[in-house]
Amino acid sequence: MPDKGYIPEWLRKIKQSDDTARAQEFAAKIAEEKAEQAIRAEGPAFWRRLIRELQAAPHAMSELGMDEVVGICQALNISKAEESYRFGVRSIGVIPKFTHVDLVYATGDHQIRCNPLNEPSYKLLIRPGKDGRIGALRPDTASPYVMNEFEVAEEILRSMLREVRSPLSECSLI
Fold first, then answer.
1. Half-sphere exposure of residue 146, counting CA atoms within 13 Å on the CB side?
2. Residue 73 in contact with residue 85, Cβ under 8 Å?
3. Quick check: is 47 in a domain?
4. 1 within domain boundaries
5. Considering the entire predicted model, what is its pTM?
6. Burial of 27 (0-12, 13-18, 19+ CB in 10 A)
7. How many domains does the chain have?
8. Domain assignment present for 29
9. pLDDT tens profile 54-76
10. Is residue 97 within 8 Å of residue 164, measured between CB atoms?
11. Which domain holds residue 95?
């Protein structure tokens, strides 16, 4: 008859492994809930900072002497449940070109919908970054990097500037 106090070491390892897995699942669930709370609480502030950054661009381009392009910004507000803005860039020259992107956000949502004029639509997922600050992640790229509002605005504007400055772009001709 086996000793009643004896527990094989391999059984202890299985039990320890099970306990570790349960603790990791619990920690992941807590982290997910904290991220969810942060997104709901800080997502609208991130949206406002992003919009403010993009709204500053038309004046800033003029101040910097970027006379070949003109930036525009207008609130669309298509529905009461969502806020939406159109940011555009047009080139001035012999063959003027224009492009824009519409940004749409529902307060407390986990994403910003981006609808460029001449490119496929995409979403920016609102997530906490490694530093804990809320930012946006573009899931259709290979980078898992969470961008702050300045980086998101730069990516959006650089894309539009590249389009209107390119001699062979598919921009709308004005």
1. 15
2. yes
3. yes
4. no
5. 0.77
6. exposed
7. 1
8. yes
9. 988 887 877 777 766 777 778 88
10. yes
11. 9-173
